[in-house]
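Appendix B. Worked example

We walk through a single record from start to finish. Start with the input: the chain for Penicillin-binding protein, beta-lactamase class c, Halosimplex carlsbadense 2-9-1, length 674.
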Amino acid sequence: MTQSPTRRRFLAGVAATAAATGSAAAGAGADPIDAEPTDRAPDDEPRGALQDGGDTDLESLVDDLVESSLEGRTASGATVAVVADGEVALTKGYGVADRDEETAVDATTPFRVGSVSKPVVATALMARIQRGDIDPQAPVSDYLDAGLDDTVGPATLADLVTHRAGYEMSNEGLWITDADALRPLPDALRTWSHARVRPPGEAPAYSNYGYAVAGGVLGVVADAPFHEAVAADLLDPVGMTASSFRQPLPDSLAEAHATGYGPGAAYADGEFPYVGLAPAGALSTTADDMARFMQLHLNDGVVDGERVLAPETVAACQRQWATAHERLPGIAFGFVESDYGGVRTLRHSGGTPAFYSDLLVVPERGLGLFVAYNGADGGTAARDVLEGFRSELLPDPDSGSNPDRNSGDEGTRSPDGQPARAGDLGGTYRSLRHSSHWHDRVTTTLQADTVEVTVADDGALVTTGGSVTRRWVEIEPLVFERVDGSERLAFDTGADGEAIEYLHRGANPTTAYGRVEGVDRLSLHAALTVLSLVGLLSAVFGWPTATAIGWFRSGDDADAAADTRRWTDRPATLARVVAAGAAVAVLAFPVAALIHLAATPFAVLSAPPPTFVALFALPILGLVGTLAALGFAVRAWTAGYWGRFGRLHYTLVAGSLAVACWLLWFWNLLVPPL
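Next comes the structure step. The output line below is what the pipeline stores for this chain.
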């Protein structure tokens, strides 16, 4: 369906001042269920007016934003839903769902929404919590027997939903290309179990596996497969009849589904990479259905005049459940907080190999936006639409609405001396969103955001990430605000409570940045890799070249060169053959692995096929050869192989092999993923 009233029409009679729905912020670790609920029926408490009083036509605004965002994109189509003042204001499609068929997108076209699945799952869980079926502060192991790792302490449902359970971020089990390889959720959790690398509650780190565990709790409590449980508990009551977590999709949804366009591939009829950890991102839905979901959250549980959830359930979802610091945004139950011009917003985005989506709800304004694209590059497009939508309909974030901000004439802050613990702040901080135990450690670490922190002479904190450098001023101990904006960051100590260990960005409450020191420094690994390569290449190419030159100069004939008795009569020759062979194996493995990764990226990263596992014979052979080469290196000095330079060179090669094997071990590439 398509509705397109102007904002003046749907805001007529709306009061100028709003009551902030669900904005009571429970501190980290507090139980929001016990907090005083915020009840707001649509007719007994007015919402706040939008920025311009409703002078701009809403459909024209969205048309301009979305059509412009599609220009030059891989994505060929988009679908949008807007809820304003708690009512469906617009559901509409743009572009084509399939380029070959030229099928137009409309509000009933299903799109894959990735992690926008998470607030849907969280809402279903909250309904169960409010009924008393689940205690969000109880250990998850009380509900779910899936072989979960509790060595660092038991995690609760609240930890899982706020990304504070301590899980590493890994691709293990995430993308499954063969429907026959899909597993029921309890089996998936056991088969693709992710490691927990920090105590629960210590620092946030976005985790798809954590949400899969939360979805597993829902299935157990409902005594049904997860996709049936979430449908019975939420999708069906809300009327989201064209939405499903089932994999593969039901035929009716698969046939109507938008084709997804990923890098070099198109996925039609629902035949896209499946999500092995389904609650983390397996939802396919439509703009019409997401409009109903936004109504649910903006009307205190009422959809099209019918009550679906109690007001307390919606209020509990929208409260802050955790934050790194009271001066920073945090995480609600399934949504991520942010502040825009003094207005609290709740948001979640979602990306898959061929789709991208974004969901924004503003409880204070009764305003919501959902947008989805059928292309992997839809992220930039969605952000453009989101920013244009917010800037038009919400207050200017730099308008001085922040009461804590004391701007100068130029709208910037100035530092007032050195910050607290200035000597402890500097260093390199890396996003915790990376793997530690799976063989994708190298790819996820290289993709993880890194920030360099220094303290300037005037006392300003300086952060550099990529090509972007920003200055910050301390507003209270260990809390900083941008000199030219309202964004904040804060530092935090680790388990010992003393050393500065984490950096928290207000712009991303789901993942902290951890201090990078010692063997975790990429500069150290780069240096070791270069030095190791020099040594290995000198063996692979240097020794054969030197031998060929020696044979040529000595006049040895081919029969003498091929005489195998020389190998037993001259162990020095065998030593070089072993070391060179180990070097070839060690060097060949990353090349072969990269080729396999390029050919089948999802399988290699998530559920390695036998062909990829077989490649690990190379580093294992390299390790065996390395141990032998280290023994030969000792023997070379005691038995007097070669001259001094020859012995030094062989020792260098053996050392290079040892370094290469250590690097492969560090990055989980020495033995096969099993």
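Two observations about the output. Residues 1-51, 400-410 have pLDDT under 50 and may be disordered. The longest helix spans residues 522-554.
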